[in-house]
Specification:
The chain is built from 8 helices and 11 strands. It is of the alpha/beta class and 239 residues long. The strands form 3 sheets. It has a 6-stranded parallel beta sheet with strand order 5-4-1-9-10-11, sandwiched between helices. A 3-stranded antiparallel beta sheet has the order 7-6-8, covered by helices on one side.
Amino acid sequence: MSEQRVEISAEDRVFVLTGAGISAESGLATFRDSDGLWAEHAIEDVCTPEAWERNPELVWQFYSARREGAERAIPNAAHVALAALEKRLEGRFFLCTQNVDDLHERAGSRNLMHMHGELFASRCSGECGRAPRRDHALYPTLADVARCDCGALMRPHIVWFGEVPMGMDHISAELSRATVMLVVGTSGSVYPAANFVRWAGHAGARTVYVGPEAPLNAAAFTQVVLGKAGEVLPGLLAD
């Protein structure tokens, strides 16, 4: 376990970005497994608007399987440490996650944004504009899929390939005023999130990365701490 610390003063504002690595430590498979396939389908074939138009049943089978896995997972020590930091900072903390699971919420995090959507929510696939709904149901067949009040099929509340990440204006505003940025468990290969460290650094923030391996954008960080987040973060963020 690292003996390093992230010094956070009474004036600091902290921006946290988390990626697949933190969820993997809770037993969730990363979004793309080693061969890029799910049930003999390429991931891109179940995670694009075109896939939805072509075969919504298959798309829902994929996300139903992901829901089953996420329901069984539990928050790990890294999730708990970040929730504790948020409570300690009393309004000077913002968490942006690339993950779609609800492990941060279950650990106690409240001021957060799921930039790639939420696994346990669904929204209208039409254009009625109704807000997303909380949804833990599984949809093995198209006949099981819920419909919006307007009659359109409900789709996963997920940002698919080719779609714009959620909350970018809010995220940009939080990055611009952060004095400390902490990135946990990301590869540094998915954009625009991989650029966040550069944006924060240009605004003057200290930037810290935590993960078992250095990310592709490691050179952009002030500090890189190698190790599993669940083992490193509790000590790194100790008051």
